[in-house]
Each structure stands twice: as structure tokens, then as C-alpha cells.
Amino acid sequence: MNRAVLIRHGESEANILRIVDDDVAAKYHLTDIGKGQINYALTQLKKLKLDKVVSSPILRARESADIIAQQLQLEVEIDPDLREAGQGPKVQKGYDQLPPLYRNFTGQETWEDIATRMQNALNRHEGNAVVVSHALPIRCLISAYLGITEEPSAFGIQVDTASMSCVDVSAKKVFSVGSYVISGNIVRKFN
């Protein structure tokens, strides 16, 4: 992949219920607000020369990707490495039941493993793409590109629903983080 817009899925039922969910078979759909968030993101994405949409296999991401792809007249490719962070025994638990940081000691997928699989996913695809994923995997990828290797140091990287982070994949360079606006400078980099 040359350049990517990493977009977190729109607000989902899991977000409303404050449930941690990494299950591909789960049925947490986008909310009406989430669909509206993705439609707003489209006003920005339409400024860019994009070749494809690549998505996590989890329903809330796939629904977001389908909205984007339909409006941009692109195909959606599903890549399992873009999935939500593995929660281990914490899956289907409330956010308030998660330990603070340090995933490596809780049976959850490690920070390093998430960053590696995200980089592998982006390296497998060609062209400029919209990449629909989840907050923690996007945060892990951005932190890897920035050279931040410790989880606690990267938690200031904010990735809200339907926010966009733009990167140069080949150069491992970050152009923007967690924005709702695509600037003229980024448009030039994608066109």
C-alpha cells in the first residue's frame, strides 16, 4: 500500500453498551449516529484519489466499509489482520472491567502483536486505500510508525469513532491522527 486513511468504524451498538468485543460472529451493528459519522467522513474522503477499501471482518467495521465503498464506487476487501484487538478472557466484558494498560499480562493480545499484524495487513495491499479498523489497532500502528514502543506512552493517541488518521505506508510516516478533516496538504499527498 502506498498511502492509507485509517478510519475507525462508526459508533456501534457495542460502543453504546460499553462492551469489549473482538468476535467476528458478533452482531453489534452501527447505530444511526455511526452511519451519520461515516457519511460525514465521506465528505472528506471524496477529496482523495483512492483505489480500494480494506476492512476488518468485524460487523461494525464491515458496515462502515460498505457505506464508504458504495459511495466511492470501490470494492471492499476484507483483511483479518485489521480485526479488533484480541481480548482473551476480557471479551464481552464492560470497559470498566478492563485493567489499566499492560495488555501483555492479562491474556489479551499483546501491543507488539497488534502493531505487527496491522503493518503486515497494510503491506499486503497496493495503491491508496481507506482502511477500516478499530481504535486500539489503529493506535498500535500509529505508535509503531512514530517509534513509540510502549503501550502506556501511546495511550494519548486518540482514535474516536469515524476519526481518520492518514499515513504513508512505504515510508512509515504519519500525516494526521484522529482527525475529522482531510487538509489540503493531505489531499496533495494522495492525488
Short description:
With 191 residues, the chain is α/β, with parallel strands linked by helices. The protein has helices spanning 13-17, 32-45, 59-72, 111-124, 135-146, 151-154, 184-190, and strands at residues 3-8, 52-55, 76-78, 128-133, 164-168, 173-179.
3D architecture notes:
The protein is an alpha/beta fold. The protein has one domain (3-190): Phosphoglycerate mutase-like (Rossmann fold, 3-Layer(aba) Sandwich). Helix content is 37%, strand content 16%. Helix 2 (32-45) crosses helix 3 (59-72) and helix 4 (111-124) packs across helix 5. The longest helix has 14 residues, at 32-45. The mean pLDDT is 90.
Secondary structure elements and pairings:
Layout: E1 3-8, H1 13-17, H2 32-45, E2 52-55, H3 59-72, E3 76-78, H4 111-124, E4 128-133, H5 135-146, H6 151-154, E5 164-168, E6 173-179, H7 184-190
CATH superfamily: Phosphoglycerate mutase-like
Mean pLDDT: 90
Structural class: alpha/beta
The ordered H/E elements are EHHEHEHEHHEEH
Could you please say which CATH topology applies here?
Rossmann fold
Q: Using the alpha-carbon principal axes, give the shape.
A: globular
Terminal residue distance = 14 Å
DSSP strand tally: 6
As a percent range, the share of strand residues is 15-25%
Low-confidence stretches: none
Helical content class = 25-40%
Domains (count) = 1
Name given to the CATH architecture: 3-Layer(aba) Sandwich
